[in-house]
Specification:
single chain, 139 residues, elongated
Length: 139
């Protein structure tokens, strides 16, 4: 088991923080950087702004959970994991719909983002099963 796996598995509350930071990073990339270089990536600004808005909503949700949730945390973690997977489905749909205009770097960006979000969602779901019946205190 790697250090990262041990760290997250022993402190599942940190997953909310990891999720929030990842969503913030996605927001910055989608809503600021990719928009500025629309031609280089090929995804229309309108779609980038929609995906960026979803990312910011996820960031706020995860930060709120990280700061406030102590009981029933598994339910909130499961909700963001499912939301992340739905976000991946939306992103895949947008990539397929705009495939003709995407560049190689655009396709690569979205592939990497989807892979990272799926790994995070898997880890979140795994943690909801690993800590049945426990409340969060210090983690």
């Amino acid at each position: 088991m790697s250090f990262i796996e041990r760290f997250i598995l022993t402190q599942p509350r940190k997953l909310f923080l990891v999720d929030a930071l990842g969503a913030l990073l996605s927001f910055i990339w989608l809503g600021i950087i990719l928009v500025q270089f629309e031609q280089a990536f090929g995804m229309p600004k309108r779609v980038l702004y929609i995906l960026a808005t979803i990312s910011m909503v996820f960031c706020i949700y995860s930060l709120t959970c990280w700061a406030m949730v102590r009981k029933s945390w598994r339910r909130y973690l499961r909700m963001i994991a499912i939301a992340n997977l739905l976000y991946c489905c939306i992103t895949i749909g947008m990539v397929l719909y705009h495939w003709h205009s995407l560049t190689a770097i655009g396709i690569t960006y979205f592939e990497v983002e989807i892979i990272l979000v799926v790994i995070l969602a898997y880890t979140e779901l795994k943690n909801t099963l690993a800590y049945r019946g426990q409340n969060l205190r210090n983690g």
